[in-house]
Amino acid sequence: MEVIHTIGRRKTAVARIYLKAGNGTITVNKRELNNYFTTPTLQYKVKQALSLVGAEDAYDVKVNVYGGGITGQAEAVRLAIARALCELDAENRAVLKPEGLLTRDPRMVERKKFGQKKARKRFQFSKR
């Protein structure tokens, strides 16, 4: 089996993954998954697509991820893995699509407007 390369994005995070046959090791930025994503919820998000397909121990995943925060990065990795699994076997799509793992989340940070404190918060109004 050749190496499958896919990209996943979330907010400003971009994840490039390389999926190949192996024994289930996930390396993120040359670090072990448990060392990079320390919270169990983020580890679950990264492994979610693999566990739904039932291929946790079948593939090795090498991840390069940059930008954004840890949650955005974890969700970017999840999307990339889901896309790779669909590229590997088209039948995986029927399992992943209903769970929403193949949808790129379009929500981005709203920009700050001038004359305001933040994007929507305003400075305190004084009538007098």
From TrEMBL:
PROSITE patterns the UniProt entry points to: RIBOSOMAL_S9 (PS00360)
Record keywords: Ribonucleoprotein, Ribosomal protein
Keyword Ribonucleoprotein belongs to the record: yes
GO terms assigned for molecular function: RNA binding; structural constituent of ribosome
Record-linked Gene3D superfamilies: 3.30.230.10
Cited NCBIfam families: PRK00132.1
The name this protein goes by in its record: Small ribosomal subunit protein uS9
Gene it is expressed from: rpsI
